[in-house]
Design brief:
- The complex is a heterodimer of chains A (about 90) and B (about 375).
- Chain A has about 90 residues and is α+β, with helices and mostly antiparallel strands.
- In chain A, about 20% of the residues lie in helices and about 40% in strands.
- Chain B contains 8 helices and 26 strands.
- Chain B is elongated, with a radius of gyration of 23 Å.
- In chain B, about 55% of the residues are buried.
- Classes of the chains: A alpha+beta (about 90), B alpha/beta (about 375).
- At the A-B interface, strand 1, strand 2, strand 3, helix 1 and strand 6 of A face helix 4, strand 7 and strand 8 of B.
Amino acid sequence: MSTEVERLVIDRFEGTVAVLVSDDGTSIDVDRALLPKGAGAGDVLRVNVGPQGGFRWSEAVVDVRATAERVMEGEDILGGLRKRDPGGDVVL
Amino acid sequence: MRLIALLALLAPSVLSGQGQPVEVIFLDVGQGDAVVIKAPEGQTALIDAGPGVDLSSALQSLDVKQLDLVVATHPHADHIGGMWQILQSTPVRFYMDNGQPHTTTTYSSVMQTLRSRPEITYLEAVPRTLQLGSVSIQVLPLPQYPSSNLNNHSVGLLVEHGEFRAFLSGDSERPELTHFLQADIVPDVTLLKAPHHGSDDAVSDAFLQIARPEVVVISVGYGNTYGHPSPSALYTYRRYADQVFRTDQHGPVTVSGYEDGTYQVTLGGTLVVQPPEPTASISISVVADAPGNDHQNTNGEYAIVSNGSDVAVDISGWTLCDAAAHCFSFPSGASVPGDGLIILYTGRGRGDGARFYMGSGAAVWNNDGDTATLRDGAGQTVVRHVY
């Protein structure tokens, strides 16, 4: 039986709580201590899902490649958007 | 929708302002930020778009048909969760963010939409003045080097209408507030949006001694699990400001600022996006220690969701999770009857509307302590029970 894997992004930390966001936009609060050692805000995690739907945090890993790809996509779009900026003060 | 009688609170020195005011409206979006600015001449701006709630009805209530400016102070989900929907539903002329990419699909969907919409002019968050009718919005310089904590790279805005000044800076914590102070760009202000939802790490005596706000508004969600606002932050704000308002307690807060520096605060109205009352009386208790071996008697442990009001609460699509994120999603049609309860058993069984089953083959609730969190369909925490 194949294990279901979910991708979750560390959106931010609120004290000891890590706020994760799934690809469908759902926010999940998790104890920060359950995350892989060294995982930081913005990291994409791959988390195995158990048969009852619970996340297996001890098996979670940082998806370094997906993280880098998403940062690059954001940088790329920002680069294009900056070309629209007329510069200086703006009368709205 | 909650209806609260309009309550106008006048500053002691204010009986009538001069001319038409700028309105700074803090929407009640739960745990997040969404602030509408309306210039006297009708131009409008939206600063952040909340944690994923639909703002369109609130904007319609405010007669906002177009947004001349949208600012995403930083790309955390509690500030841009509703941004994609805004871009789909409301014409937007100018868009500004902090220029820092994020990796969530929430962020990605916003950026891809902006890329596909050439009619939206992107503005970098560099020091500049944005003129919104007679209201000028100064964009404050960001810290030179991005922080791994995007809170400290929030776009800072100084909204000025004559002598009335409002300071808004997303989730700035002390490092960014200190940066603003060191840049000598913090004036005496009338209104301060409490940064980072009134958290401990976003309160600075040094900042408040310079800003000297008369009114502080905290945009914060009812029953949030992060401890916002912190008691010490509230205490500090109350020491400096004449009035402190919270969207979780007061609903939407509108501060009308006049050119002579006077202001008026209006609470409530029909602008509530997320009414807390229907769920305010919901509570949770957990029976974690099942008779015998917990793993072999999974229906010996259970959670009870009680409703202390006399009105049934629809919990369709709500989730109940333990601290390790073992979650149960209540099915469509589920509700907690008025002055009644429902029981969620850990094991397997056939639900009947009063009893629900997680379907787990093992115990879920830790006997030596755990946290039960009930969230609504939008993912907002309704109540949290720690034992």
